[in-house]
Amino acid sequence: MTETAKTPADFWFDPLCPWAWMTSRWMLEVEKVRPVEVRWHVMSLAVLNEPKLDELPEEYRELLKTAWGPVRVCIAAEQKHGSEVLGALYTALGTRFHNQGLEKNRETIVAALEEAGLPAELADFADSDAYDTELRASHKEGIDLVGQDVGTPVIAVPGADGEQIAFFGPVVTPAPKGEDAAKLWDGTLMVASIPGFYEIKRTRTVGPIFD
Predict the structure, then answer these.
(1) How many angstroms separate the Cα of 45 from the Cα of each of 18, 42, 98, 100, 188?
(2) How far apart are CA 202 and CA 112, in angstroms?
(3) Which of 99, 114, 157, 202 gets the most CB atoms within 10 Å of its CB?
(4) Which domain holds residue 155?
(5) In the predicted structure, residue 1 carries a pLDDT above the cut 50
């Protein structure tokens, strides 16, 4: 890798997930303080939970009913306008869903599309399965790297030999800024470089802090 080359970080997100949102805001900070390029991909909480839907609490099953629309709009935007539009669209959707607490309805999605410079008619795909094959393929790409026993986000970074090493997370709140963002990134690369490293975890005692 040359001095001017940027380290790739592949990031799979579902815009519905507040923890993925936290991690994504950290990655935007990382791009400011390290030579890193985030490459955005769509995964789906609805797809992820299909095999165990009957085992989930009713409240979470109801939440998942709202999960199809936003990811379907994201995958349609990617298919029609290229993957480079996903970052701006995710920011526009996530800001509305999480920071502003707006309803995950057509009006909110249209406003996000317009902010991202995308056609408002892409909101029609929220109720369409036209790109579900592509959505499932994008989801599978991330899950195949990290394994089944995870949620969103999934991040894949170069390991010791340059191969992609994927993790669920990091789960963090609030999103680290400045040097803290850089240190967490450096640590992520460090653990990815250790053969056989899988997991560090502790109980969450604070919910997502949107700032």
Answers:
(1) 12, 10, 16, 21, 24
(2) 34
(3) 157
(4) 7-193
(5) no
Distance CA 36, CA 33 (A): 8
**CB of 189 closer than 8 Å to CB of 162:** no
Tallying the residues shown for the chain, one arrives at 211
Q: What token pair was written down for 148?
A: 């089944």
Q: Is 27 left (phi over 0), alpha (psi -120 to 50) or beta?
A: alpha
Asked whether residue 209 is assigned to any structural domain, the reply reads: no
Query: What is the tally of structural domains in the chain?
Result: 1
Per-residue pLDDT, averaged over 41-65, amounts to 88
pLDDT band at 175 (very low <50, low <70, confident <90, very high): very high
pTM above threshold 0.85? yes
CATH code, domain carrying 101: 3.40.30.10
Within-domain flag for 139: yes
| Structural domain includes residue 179 | yes
d(CA 211, CA 208): 10
Phi-psi region of 205 (alpha: psi -120 to 50; beta: other; left: phi over 0): alpha
Average pLDDT over residues 90-101: 97
